[in-house]
Amino acid sequence: MHLDELAKSLNGYFPTRESYPAWVTQPFTFSVATADVIDEYLDEIIELQQSQVQQQLFRTTTLSTFWCHQIVVYPLIAKKALEILIPFVDFRGPLAQPCFRKLRNNRTVIHKNLFVAMVVQVLVRLVLYADQTISRGDSTGLGSGISQHRHGIDSTVST
């Protein structure tokens, strides 16, 4: 039961091949006239459809390998196609080095949580030090007014 739920939740992260746009899965057979594609991609798609070399490459390689080969020649559509095919990779980084979005997001959340934990720790210590200073009657903060009877937060004697 638990594994079935886990499998269903993981399937949401990986789109099925049927959900990919036609220009990604079949770049040489779909009609440009009826395609729902951004205008800036149309020029590269039309140019790609005219290339016999690219058609041969498409027939002999996998879909993701084909689009990886297109990055230099057709950068706009190749990057967009790879973003669709490989959803966890980010191609916008410095020097276009892919990094994993999901991991980067988790790392950011962890860093934020660590920062909050450090701030809370500092605030607790400040409250403790302020209480010790007030309860001991030490105006200088050097411990000159330490008495035998503690009445502050650090008191372990019940009264």
TrEMBL record:
Keywords: Membrane, Transmembrane, Transmembrane helix. Pfam families: 7tm_2. The keyword Transmembrane applies. It is found in: Membrane. It is a multi-pass membrane protein. InterPro entries: GPCR_2_secretin-like. This is Uncharacterized protein. It comes from Petrolisthes cinctipes.
